[in-house]
Amino acid sequence: MRIDIISAVPSLLESPFADSILQRAQTKGLVTVRIHDLRDYTTNKHRKIDDYAFGGGAGMVMTIQPIADCIKQLQSERTYDEIIYMTPDGERLTQTISNQMSSLENIIILCGHYKGVDQRVRDLFITKEITIGDYVLSGGELAAAVLADSIIRLIPGVLNDETSALTDSFQDDLLAPPVYTRPADYEGHKVPDILLSGDPNKVENWRMEQAEKRTKERRPDILKND
């Protein structure tokens, strides 16, 4: 998979992809992440990428020219399955969306900034708009990193344990059950006996029961309707 991220502040994206699972995924050749500085594509001699909004109002708007030129350049090199714009008014990111995108080959993620992008960018180029929650960030960079992380970890071979991602919260519309590790007894607080029983069927049943219980208590909104 290849992920191209277009950003007005590319330095914000250096750290998330330079360590841990995301870095190893790139080292293994399972994913290629390229971050593009939008200012490299502007024709403005002062490297400006924003301007005042027509009709007035507070805040600046990202101009169409550098964004369009960057996307067109990338499209001349390969075909993209999705061109995604990170925006508060997009579709809320879910595990289902991440699962679907993990099977794609090439995607572009455009990070919003200031008061957003010229609407014509969204009309002409964007195929999918995503938000990571009902709140506003200073820019789309952190949201883009969240989206990329949620996708990359699902690519086969990225995680050391191939079944790890399949047992994450939300994979089966349930939250993950409680997990424990050594010591089995910490100052009188003990691990449930069933997890020490050595019976995989009983353990699996217990985990399912706990997942259902936790979901009903904390996120009843995600339970499927019968």
Structure keywords:
single chain; 226 residues; alpha/beta; Alpha/beta knot; Trp Operon Repressor, Chain A; five-stranded parallel beta sheet; two-stranded antiparallel sheet; elongated
CATH level 3 topology of the largest domain: Alpha/beta knot
Low-pLDDT residue spans = none
Largest sheet: 5 strands, parallel
Number of helices: 6
Q: Helices and strands: which structural class?
A: alpha/beta
Q: Which oligomeric state applies?
A: single chain
How do the helices and strands follow one another from N- to C-terminus? EHEEEHEHEHEHEEH
Our estimate of the beta-strand percent is: 15-25%
User: How does the overall form come out from the CA principal axes?
Assistant: elongated
Write a short abstract of this structure.
The chain is an alpha/beta fold and about 230 residues long. The protein is about 30% helix and about 20% strand.
Task: Give the helices and strands, then pairings.
Layout lengths: L1 E6 L12 H8 L4 E6 L12 E3 L7 E3 L1 H12 L6 E11 L2 H7 L4 E6 L7 H6 L3 E4 L9 H12 L32 E2 L2 E2 L9 H19 L8
Write up this protein:
With 226 residues, the protein is α/β, with parallel strands linked by helices. The protein has two domains: 2-152, SPOUT methyltransferase, trefoil knot domain (Alpha/beta knot, 3-Layer(aba) Sandwich); 169-222, Trp Operon Repressor, Chain A. The protein has six helices and nine strands. A hairpin with a 2-residue loop joins strand 8 (185-186) and strand 9 (189-190). The two termini are 36 Å apart.
